[in-house]
Amino acid sequence: MINRSTVKALGLKPVTRTMCYDLYIKINSEFKTSEAIKESVSWWQNDCEKLNTLWWVLNYYSDLLDPDRNLRAFVERYLDSLAKEKDDVAQT
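Now predict its structure.
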């Protein structure tokens, strides 16, 4: 799960399965491996909303995309680092 403090710091909202469907179709058609999905994370590494949506896609479609939960953990680490950066900036 995404850390509660990360959710609060970044103002992340839950995303419904219906809202995730278009991104799921895009991921399913464009990225054939876990590594390809991980690479896409680097394109969105500073967009917490996009990463949040990706996390929900991976959660809803975990049987197909992320059965071992490694991709979700990867996205969670990116979100945690964005939250830490935001917190660090707020403290300066």
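The helical segments are 4-10, 17-30, 34-43, 48-60, 62-65, 70-91.
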